[in-house]
Every structure is written in C-alpha cells, then in structure tokens.
Amino acid sequence: MIYLTTGTPTPIDPSKTLKEVPVSVCSQSCPPGSRRVGRKGEPVCCFQCVPCPQGEISNQTDSVDCFKCPWNQWPNLQKNRCLQKTIEFLSHEEALGATLTAFSVFSSIIPIHIFGLFFRYKNTPIVKANNYNLSCLLLVSLCFCFLSSLAFIGYPMPEKCLLRQPAFGMFFTLCVSCILAKTIMVVFAFMATKPGSSLKKWTKPKVAYMIVVFSSFLQFLLCTSWLLCATPFPEHNTQMQSGTIIVECNEGSNTAFWCMLGYLGFLATISFIVAFLSRRLPDSFNEAKFITFSLLAFLSGWVSYIPASLSARGKYTVAMEIFAILSSSWALVACTFVPKCFIILFRPYLNSKEQLMGNTRG
C-alpha cells in the first residue's frame, strides 16, 4: 500500500489509477431532443448540439439524426418522445354537441304540432286562405330541416359526409320553393279577382305544385352532379392545429357547395322580392307580410354564416353551420306560422270569414 505524506494517511488502490481514462473529446454529450453537428475545421470529437427541427425528435444521447413522429403523433416540448394527438370533432358527448342535438330534436317537434293544429282547423277561414296543402308540405319540410342538422354532429362517417350537405340543401330548397309558390299564388289570387282577368287558370293548386317541383328539381340536379363528379369524403386534418387531428368532411368541391348554397339564396331572394312587392295586398288573400319578415330573417342568418364560417376552425365551423340551419328554420316557423297559431288558439273570433273580409275592406 502507498500512503500520502501529508494529512491523514489515506490508502490508494493502484487498480483504480489504471482504470482512469483521460477525456478525449472537447464537447459535452448531446441530450435527447437534439442532434450532433460537427464543427467546421475542428477534430471529429468536437461538435455542437442542435435542437431537433419542429415536428421531429431524438430519443437517444448523442443522436446524429432526428426523425419525424407518425402522422397521428406529435413531439413533446422536450422533443425526446412522441405523444398521441388529440382527435377533435363535434361529438354528441360534449356540451356543445349535446346542446345542439337536444335543441334540434326539440325544434323538429314544433312543426309537427303546428301540422296537427292546422289539420284540426283545416276548414277554418285563416287556414284555407293561406293554402292549406302548401302549408302542410312546408311544415313537413321544416321538420326535416331541423333534423338535417343532426347529420353534422358525431364522428364524420363516409355516409354522413356523402349525404349531409345535399340533404340539407334539398330540404331547404323544398321549404323555400313552397314559400315561393305561396307568394306567387297570393299575387295570382289577387290579380284574378279583377274583372276580365285571365289569371284565374293560374290559381289552380297544380300551378303551385309545378313551381315547387321545378325549383326543387334544379337543386336535385346540382346535388346529383356534385356527388357524381366530386364525392365528399372524411379526412384527417393534421395541419390546422398542432397536436390535434381534426376529423372533418372534405366537401369534394367547394365550388359545388357554394353553387348549392347560392341557388338556395337565389330562390330565397326571389321569394323575398315577390313577397315584399305584394305585402300590401288585401289580408284575406295575403300572408306576404309574414313571408317577407321570415325570408328577411332567413337571408340574414345565412349572410352572417359566411364570414363566421370562414373565421371559425375545426368543430366550430360545423357548429356555425348547424346554428345557421336552426336559426333560419326557426325564422320560417316563427314568422310564417306563429301568428296564425296565435289567432287559432287565443283569438278564435278573428278566425272567421267576416273578420277576414272586414280586414280587406279596412
């Protein structure tokens, strides 16, 4: 044993001195989350540590390369391992999806109850004066409009993506076509009362049905062409938000979608113009005032939807469209049918032929 000459004698193990190796590098080890990059003009043992680029990791010390995470994962803050990305869609389980689902189902019941009320009082003057058959068709289509919003909630399955926008477009086109037919029939009915008028043949119910069928058929052609040429499909959007996979429906063709929506807006605008111009016709024939207000609210809802949908992201884009569907449907129900229901239930003395004719003379 060998002892030091100063202080307390301390034994030294000769075997340990033989195992000590002098440091032969001039750089510290690179931790996980970074990679080694050699220094230009210096020995190989000299290098610097560079953090991994965005979206890449290294999980070993002194790693030479970084590698990307799988498409459904993303790096943690330290960039030394991959984390599972959050999957986002408008679900029935979350508060927003559950609220919209409940409100849609509740709203769809209202037109059915109004339909039952109209059926019960179908022989009363106020129901007869406002085209009973078209009103019933409009109420049924409004019920389906409310229910169409349910196709936008839940996981975007292929069949949902395929049918949700065309179904929404067809049901709303049927609604607006009925309103257009009702408005045109109001004008024809008033004009036919003038002596020598040749418009009496245009006041027949089949004319109104032809307007509805023709207007809806054009939208049907647009939607069919859309589905055949650019079929919508579900996709996983990993670029919009880091750390989140947004499961959404790719509409296949934005041009086709806006053509469908544009045609619906065109029909609503024509109906609004006709209703606005005929709003001062006699009350015994006329519901154009109510139609004017309902279409004004309808168009306002969809005009406000356009900038809101462009600024929203992910599931909130879908929520904005559902909100537009529900608000515009409620506008048609409230402005077109609530006044009539109020008179039928709470002002029955106004629901008489004499009262309606008195309003005309007044």
Task: Please explain how this structure is put together.
This protein has a domain at 94-234 and 253-361: Rhopdopsin 7-helix transmembrane proteins. It is 56% helix and 10% strand. It is built from 11 helices and 9 strands. The strands form 4 sheets. A 3-stranded mixed sheet has the order 7-9-8. The protein starts with 13 loop residues before the first helix and ends with a helix. By secondary structure, the chain is mainly α. A hairpin with a 6-residue loop joins strand 5 and strand 6.
Write the layout of secondary structure elements.
Blueprint: H1 14-19, E1 34-38, E2 47-51, E3 56-57, E4 67-68, E5 73-75, E6 82-84, E7 86-88, H2 95-120, H3 125-128, H4 132-148, H5 158-192, H6 205-229, E8 233-237, E9 244-250, H7 254-277, H8 288-311, H9 315-336, H10 338-346, H11 353-361
Parallel strand pairs: 7-9
Antiparallel strand pairs: 1-2, 3-4, 5-6, 8-9
Helix pairs in contact: 2-4, 2-9, 4-5, 4-9, 5-6, 5-7, 6-7, 7-8, 8-9
